[in-house]
Write a structure and sequence with these properties.
This protein is of the alpha/beta class and about 240 residues long. The chain folds into two domains: about 150 residues, HAD superfamily/HAD-like (Rossmann fold, 3-Layer(aba) Sandwich); about 80 residues, DNA polymerase, domain 1, CATH 1.10.150.750. The chain has ten helices and six strands; from the N terminus they run E-H-H-H-H-H-E-H-E-H-H-E-H-E-E-H. The protein has a six-stranded parallel beta sheet, sandwiched between helices.
Length: about 240
């Protein structure tokens, strides 16, 4: 039996799951690092980013995401004994639109759209997501952002708003499956809410938590890519 047959809607985290935010973050940080002579490994830079982004989001839950990015760079610079000026921080904050989609994302979403309602549940603002959505290739049935709910995951505001809006697209809560990469931002709160979830383990071939704070969560369904998940989610009964 296909375990995904009972579900009629898929809610996705966007950045890290559909958009390759780690590549985008590193590419956006490179000019600043080069200008200031910062010689840190990609793993070190992502660890710093994870630490300060989550702190900024916790301290300023209503701050729009470009400002979160800008403040994160200020704190990264300070932790390295340096500074980042306003222009550098603003440039980093506006980099989201240049972050690439994973190579398998658009095709997987188009395939899944044939069977499921598709929803975005993301730590982002609407203007930034609109830039990313051009790379995703589908129209989503619902978009829930940090800008909408006034908080950032792993706070539960996104999910409460999602559950409240499901009837508007003809879906019951028991018909919803969450799909995400971040154990910290998505799978921890999903488990607290008894929301079934699939882990798209984009870092399956690398060590460390990358651009998310480390955590320890057991997930029942784990796939290395969106393509592999789509294959199983769309598998017919035999």
């Amino acid at each position: 039996m296909n375990p995904f047959n009972p579900y009629r809607a898929l809610s996705f985290d966007c950045y890290g799951t559909l958009i390759d935010w780690e590549t985008g973050i590193l590419q956006a940080l490179q000019p600043w690092c080069a200008w200031h002579g910062v010689d840190r490994s990609p793993a070190d830079l992502l660890e710093l980013y994870a630490r300060y982004e989550s702190a900024v989001q916790s301290e300023h839950p209503t701050m729009r995401y470009p400002e979160v990015l800008a403040e994160s760079l200020r704190r990264i610079a300070s932790s390295l004994g340096m500074s980042a000026n306003d222009a550098e921080c603003t440039e980093f904050g506006l980099s989201v639109g240049a972050w690439p989609a994973f190579a398998d994302t658009a095709l997987a979403l188009r395939r899944l759209k044939q069977r499921y309602r598709l929803i975005i549940v993301s730590n982002i603002d609407h203007s930034s997501f609109a830039l990313s959505n051009r790379r995703l290739g589908v129209e989503f049935d619902m978009v829930v952002t940090a800008q909408d709910v006034g908080s950032y995951k792993p706070a539960l505001g996104h999910f409460h708003s999602l559950f409240e809006q499901l009837p508007s697209i003809g879906v019951e809560r028991g018909e919803l499956l969450h799909v995400a990469q971040s154990l910290f931002h998505d799978h921890e709160p999903a488990q607290r809410l008894d929301l079934p979830a699939v882990w798209i383990d984009r870092r399956h071939d690398r060590g460390g938590p990358g651009a998310t704070p480390p955590t320890d969560v057991d997930v029942a369904w784990r796939y290395p890519s969106m393509a592999a998940f789509a294959d199983d989610a769309l598998r017919s009964e035999t």
